[in-house]
Specification:
heterodimer; A: 298 residues; ten-stranded mixed β-sheet; two-stranded antiparallel sheet; 30% helix; B: mainly alpha; 9% strand
């Protein structure tokens, strides 16, 4: 998964997308997965939601929406450690345009919360867009039992995330030394309480168990720029590659698998994707299930 | 203006300065910008200037600001104590609540001069101990690291509780959130070393049980210093002798026991110009005005015997402090980034708690140290990686330190500044102990190149009943800056699998 490999793969992918993806809609007519390229993050998000059938497909009037970006690190936008703020902004605005009552943005950060919220740039744009930006506080965790859990039978979850009507997951695609890549399924760590480091042991099965608790209404994966090494915190611009891509969909496993392909890796190398698939969370075969692709012209 | 209005004015000014003081603490929080304002009450303190600079020989130009303050008693006597000092105002408040019977303390008030001389001598011998009794650092740290967190935790908690049970409308949740996000970290501050500062603060306030302004009269070394100069104060109490009926009411209301037995002459070294005596005078014959000092018998502040005594105590004390000096052998004593060398650090640090208040990591990495730093190092800030860690992108402690015990570092310098080195405890670390993956320390390491690297080995795991690749962490000491996030985030419960020791720490020589 070095940079050269990555660029080669993404070029190949772009090519394949360019040649055979005019109107690759599933039978129902509304796609479950879209891939938008080459626009600015805000444009691409708006387009992705539009291609998925519009925000009203997901958000009803008076809904309380919980948006979970990845803003775990005290790094600015260009370091690709946090979700791009403009994607979060576009998502919030879309929710409000569908009549959402309240949009909550929160993440349990790895570094000091005020620094992460501020320096990721997300707090500012989210507040401007009218969202309620909450710091994740210790007293807001509730214990949730996971009856189908294979290795985890219960864990503490962030209450506002559980209580919201809709849950939009907006992770960023980046390198991680344990999971290989950290994308959407691992993004659930940001609404967990307790000693999260303990999840790392037997990570693949645990992360799938934790994902049994919340099913995102919509997953938007930020691959506008990708951290290819020294993740998940990064800090070196040499490790950041531009990809100008957004993957969005309703199937959290399929979006995950396609993000892996964007990175230039094979989804079948990632046990948590396989496990999530066999747990019935979604499809994982990227050869069978292709996205509807839209490329902005320069 | 009549006398009553003047007292109202004095009280108003006391409240205003107290609020300004509270504001200097409130603004000392990330994202911090009020560099100068927040140090205001500490850089004007002549004891800080004299103590730190005599003990270390380090000249800090900002401390020149204490000079006008030091000379102010020539004009206004000890008006600072009565009108401005936040500790004085706090004591006035506790006096009002706790003091039932005012017992005069005339004989013991010499103690404060003794303490002043003793601490001055100790400073000359190279040990700055004013932090123990200097009112301004005491009140700063007492509010910043004890009262603020406690009040915050109580108010925040109760408002949340009242909202949850429906006593308060939801709207207050937003107010609560806004206030707490502006002045506090969203993670409630935790404190490992506030016991000693708390005891000192409570002892000072408990003087109210005995006598009004007990602390100011008997112990305060700053009061003593101002008092010496206030002897020649131009602003002083005047009584029209012919009208005085010797009713003693002024003497009874005097908080400072500054009125002599003849009721007309005043000890200006003690008088804090609170003006209370002007309103209680039934013949209205008392007022304060500017006039040259008259020749009034002043009691001797210190006898020669007690001076010699102070000299002996200071020598013994200095020897004792030298003997109990610690820190070198304590390899877990991590100092804030930019700290000067250990001995100078203990002398420059006035234990004001500014760095502890501003420290921006969750829960606060800097804590006043109690054990393992010797007596000369008591209550100096140390990094406690159980409670927090040093934020990679943060250099606030150096920006805020009023005495430059923590030197200012540019963010770029701070990110390379080595506070210590992480070492892996292989008997606790999960990969080494259980042959399973963890990488939490590596994941959190903020160094762009990662100071923690992973060694991959293929092993057969009986836990998974298959062959797996285990990533074993190891530290590159040359890259590690000892920020402690690895120690703080290590998922091993109790003693972590990776700890930071002092090895390789940088200290700034002054």
């Amino acid at each position: 998964m070095d940079r050269r490999h990555f660029i080669k793969n993404s070029l190949l992918l772009t090519g394949s997308v360019f040649f055979n993806l005019n109107n690759l809609l599933p039978e129902s007519g509304i796609p479950e997965l879209v891939l938008v390229k080459n626009g600015n993050p805000e444009q691409m998000t708006i387009k992705a939601i539009e291609l998925l059938g519009g925000i009203k497909r997901f958000i009803n009037k008076e809904d309380v929406v919980f948006i979970k970006p990845n803003m775990s690190w005290d790094r600015s936008v260009e370091y690709a450690a946090n979700t791009h703020p403009l994607i979060v902004k576009a998502a919030i605005e879309a929710c409000f345009s569908a009549g959402a009552k309240k949009v909550i943005v929160a993440d349990r950060t790895c570094q000091e919360a005020r620094r992460c919220y501020r320096n990721s740039g997300i707090q500012e744009v989210a507040k401007k867009a009218g969202a309620t930006v909450l710091f994740v506080r210790e007293n807001q965790f509730v214990s949730v039992s996971i009856p189908e859990g294979e290795v985890l039978k219960s864990w503490e979850f962030y209450r506002p995330a559980l209580e919201a009507d809709k849950y939009i997951n907006i992770p960023i695609l980046k390198h991680h030394n344990l999971a290989g890549l950290t994308i959407g399924l691992k993004n659930i760590m940001g609404i967990l309480g307790g000693n999260r480091g303990r999840i790392h042991r037997d990570f693949n099965r645990k992360i799938v168990d934790l994902n049994r608790v919340i099913k995102p209404t919509l997953t938007i994966i930020d691959a506008t720029r990708i951290l290819t090494a020294h993740g998940p915190s990064g800090g070196n611009l040499k490790d950041v590659t531009k990809a100008q891509t957004i993957i969005a969909g309703t199937d959290r496993v399929l979006t995950e698998a396609w993000a892996v392909r964007i990175f230039g890796a094979d989804p079948s190398d990632f046990p948590f994707i396989k496990l999530a698939h066999s747990a019935g969370m979604g499809k994982s075969d990227t050869k069978k299930h292709k996205p509807l692709t839209y490329t902005f012209q320069k | 203006m009549n006398h009553k209005n003047l007292i109202i004015l004095r009280k108003t000014i006391q409240i205003i300065f107290f609020l300004i003081f509270i504001l200097t603490i409130a603004v000392a929080v990330y994202p911090f910008k009020a560099y100068f304002f927040t140090k205001l009450f500490l850089i004007i303190d002549p004891l800080n200037a004299i103590g730190t600079q005599t003990a270390t020989g380090y000249f800090n130009p900002i401390m020149l600001l204490s000079l006008p303050f030091l000379l102010s008693p020539i004009l206004f006597g000890r008006a600072f104590c009565g009108w401005i000092c936040p500790l004085g105002t706090t004591i006035d408040l506790t006096d009002n609540i706790l003091n039932k019977r005012h017992i005069k303390t005339i004989k013991t008030r010499r103690v404060k001069y003794f303490l002043l001389i003793l601490f001055l001598l100790l400073s000359i011998l190279g040990f700055q101990l004013f932090w123990l009794l200097d009112p301004l650092p005491i009140i700063w740290r007492s509010f910043a690291i004890i009262i603020f967190p406690i009040v915050y935790a109580l108010v925040y908690g109760f408002v949340e509780l009242f909202i949850n049970v429906g006593i308060l409308p939801d709207f207050f949740s937003r107010v609560n959130e806004a206030i707490s996000n502006t002045f506090f970290s969203p993670h409630p501050p935790t404190a490992s070393g506030i016991f000693l500062p708390l005891v000192i603060f409570l002892l000072i306030l408990s003087g109210s049980f005995i006598s009004k302004r007990f602390w100011c009269k008997n112990l305060c070394p700053l009061g003593a210093l101002l008092g010496i100069i206030a002897r020649w104060s131009l602003l002083r109490r005047h009584v029209v002798t012919s009208q005085c009926t010797a009713c003693s009411l002024c003497d009874q209301t005097c908080k400072m026991d500054a009125i002599y037995d003849d009721f007309t002459s005043t000890n200006t070294s003690e008088c804090i110009i609170c003006l209370n005596c002007t309103t209680t005078c039934p013949t209205d014959s008392t007022e304060f005005k500017f006039s040259p000092p008259t020749k009034v018998k002043q009691e001797a502040n210190l006898t020669r015997r007690s001076l010699i005594f102070a000299g002996i105590i200071s020598l013994l004390g200095a020897g004792f402090l030298k003997l109990t000096a610690k820190g070198k052998e304590n390899d877990r004593l991590i100092r804030p980034p930019g700290a000067v060398t250990e001995e100078d650090f203990n002398d420059l640090c006035i234990r004001c708690g500014e760095c502890i208040r501003v420290c921006s990591t969750s829960g606060g990495c800097l804590q006043p140290g109690i054990t393992g730093m010797g007596i000369a190092g008591l209550m100096t800030p140390r990094a406690d990686y159980h409670l927090g860690y040093c934020e990679y992108e943060c250099n606030l402690c150096g920006q805020i330190c009023p005495t430059e015990a923590i030197q200012k570092l540019k963010l770029k310098e701070k990110k390379r500044y080595k506070m210590g080195t992480a070492i892996i405890q292989k008997d606790r670390c999960i990969p080494y102990r259980l042959n399973d993956n963890c990488i939490v320390c590596e994941e959190h390491c903020p160094i762009p190149e990662k100071a923690i690297k992973l060694d991959e080995k293929k092993i057969f795991s009986s836990f998974y009943n298959s062959e797996i690749i285990v990533k074993y962490p190891y530290v590159i000491p040359e890259l590690c800056i000892g920020c402690g996030i690895c120690e703080n985030k290590c998922p091993v419960e109790g003693e972590p699998g990776i700890i930071v020791i002092k090895e390789g720490e940088e200290r700034i020589k002054i």
